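User: Working on a comparison across species. This one is MerR family transcriptional regulator from Streptomyces longisporoflavus. Can you predict its structure so I can line it up against the others?
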Amino acid sequence: MAWSIADVARMSGVTSRTLRHYDEIGLLPPARIGSNGHRYYEEAELLRLQQILLMRELDLGLREIRAVLESQADQVAVLREHRRRLLAERDRLEMLARTVGRTIAELQEGEDNDDMVKINRPENLFEGFEASTPRIDAEVRERWPRAWEQSRQAVEGMTAEDTEHYQREVTAHLIRMAEFMAAGTPVADAAVQAAVDAQYQFVCRYWTPNAAAYKGMGQHFAEDPQSRANFDKIAEGLADYQRDAMVFYADARLS
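Assistant: Here's the predicted structure for MerR family transcriptional regulator from Streptomyces longisporoflavus:
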């Protein structure tokens, strides 16, 4: 049985644009191309796509994924390793959920007592969080290698304080954008574009995207399942709003 590219996009949540890109770089060629020029995928391609998506969830770049797929490693052994890492991530997310739940309970207790909120053990606020550094998506690394190298060098020079500041800035920007979206503010509004400009200037501390690269970042936010889920945790639809605001900015300021 064969499925069209539209069928695969619907089943997997991967956009047709991304599937075509995977074909163009040799990562996921279709089983065949019909006389009408349409791509068709069979079971082997669906299994390969599952592996690609699993490795994307584990933050592997497209080049690394292709190397794994071409290594002819035992498929079951590879899937077992993916499963082990996914279960470890599940345990970490469950710990984060408990951390947030405990914080909610302590904040509500302070409100119920009409008293100043007190956190009993401040270190508990951060249980389950991983130390992280800003990263540029693997597709950016593939398409704009010079920008990726610029970003890598900047990240390697960051201190723990720099990383904490980065995380605060990103969170604050997303909250501002969520507030604009909730208020129904058009992405072309001057206040929204000022926020996007601040974001762009912040990104430029690590690398300097041109119009196409900046639009690519916005598209990634909206189309990559993991990135979209992270935006949706703040406000559903925020990934699309952020993308549209970045596209408008790139057309107006970077083209």
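For your comparison, note: The chain is about 70% helix and 5% strand.

User: Helpful, thanks.
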